[in-house]
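During the reporting period the student researcher (J.K.) took over the structure-prediction task from the postdoctoral fellow and processed the backlog of single-chain submissions. One of the processed entries is reproduced below for the supervisory committee.
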Amino acid sequence: MEQTDTSGPDQHSDSDGRSSRWRNWSGFWLLGLCNNFAYVVMLSAAHDILKKQESGNTTLTAPGTLSVDGGNSSNSSRYDCNPVSTAAVLLADILPTLFIKLMAPFFIHKMPYGYRVIFCAIMAATSFLLVSLSSAVWMSILGVIFASCSSGLGELSFLSLTVFYSRDVLAGWGSGTGGAGVAGAVLYALLTQVGLTPRVTLQIMLVVPVAMLASYFLLLDPPPSLPQWRNREAEFSPVDSEERQRLMDETDEAEKSTLEERHTGPLTFTEKLHTIKGLLKFVFPLGLVYFAEYFINQGLMELLYFPNFFLSHAQQYRWYQTLYQVGVLVSRSSLCCFKIRKLLALSLLQVVNAVLLLLAVKYQFLPSAWLVFIIIFYEGLLGGAAYVNTFYFISKETEDRQREFAMAAASVGDSLGIALAGLAAFPVHRYFCSL
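J.K. obtained the following C-alpha cells:
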C-alpha cells in the first residue's frame, strides 16, 4: 500500500491549484456517474419494457431484477430458476462495449476529446429515447446497444483523459462509476414507485447526458495540452517532420537515440502493440477478477435461494445486487485512502469467492442468506478495488508518451472478463436448472 500521489503532467500554481484540483476531481466524479448511470438506468427500464412487450402484461417487475418469484410455476428445478440464464442479458449488454474497447484504442486518438464527449452524450440520449418510445422488441434491443456503445466509448475516453490531469482525478472517476450502480437503481426505483411509468422515467433521465456535457465543458479546468477540438496529430506538421528527419540524418547514433526519446508524436502501430504487451500484467488480473465476479452475478446469484428466509426469492436476489453495488461503491472510493499493488491477489481472492459459491449452490451447505449477503458485499469490494488500483498503477508506471493509449487499451480487461463469464454461466445455469 502507498500514500496518496497527486502528481501529474499538468499542475497549476499554488494560488489556484486547490480550487482547480477540486473542480477536476468533482468533474471526473460526475463523468463517472453519468457514464455508468445512464447505462444502469436504461437497462433496468429496457427489461421492464421488454417484459411488457413480450407478455402483453402491464404489471412490471422490480427495477433491475428478473422475475425469479413469479411466472415460474412450471419450473421443477429445486433451484427455482428462470428457464433462460441472466447471462443472456449480460452478453447483450457487454458485447458492443467489448468490440469498441478492442478496436477504438487504435484509432480513437484521431477524434479530439470534445467531439468524443458530445458523441457519447448523443448516444446515451438516443438510447433513452429509443427504449422509452419503443413499440417493438427490436427497438428496445437497439436502445441497449446504443447505451452499451456510449458507456464503452465513454469509459476508455475518460480513462485516457485522466492523463492530462493530476493523478487524483482517477479516485473521482472510480468513485463516480461506483456510485452509478447504487444511485441509478435507487432513483429508477423511486420514480417508478411513486407512480411514474418506465417510459416517463426514462424521458426524465435525459437530464443525465446533459449533466455529462456540463461536467466536461463547464466544470473541468482543462490544461493547455488537452487536444479538445484539434487532432493530436495536427500538432506535428510535415515541416516539423522534415526538420526532425534532417536533424536525425546529421547526428550520430547516440544523438539519434536522444532525439527519439524526446519524440512526442503519436504512437506507431508497432509501438502500440509493444505497449499492449507490457499491459498484460494489468489486464490479465483485471479480466480474471471480473470473470469470477460476473460468473457469480450472472451464473450463481439467482441460484443462491433460501426458501425459509423471511425475504422472497426476488427480494433476496434484489438485495444481493444492491449489496454488491454498495461494495463496489465503497472500494472504488478508497483510492484516496490507500493503494493496493498486489492486483493478482485480488483476482485470486475473487476466484476463491466464485469457487466457494459454486460449491454452495451444488451442495447447499450455507446456512442462511445473511452469510451470502456478506460474501456478495465482499465480492463487490474486491471487484471495485481491482478496477481503481489497476488504472492507478497503469497511470503511474507507464511512460508519459504511452500513458494515454495504455489507459484506453487496458479498459478492455473488465469487458473481456465479463463476456467470458457470460459464456461460462450458460452451461452452469442450464446444469443446475435441469436438476
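The committee noted the following: Residues 20-230+269-433 form a domain with the Growth Hormone; Chain: A; fold (CATH 1.20.1250.20).
J.K. will present the remaining backlog at the next meeting.
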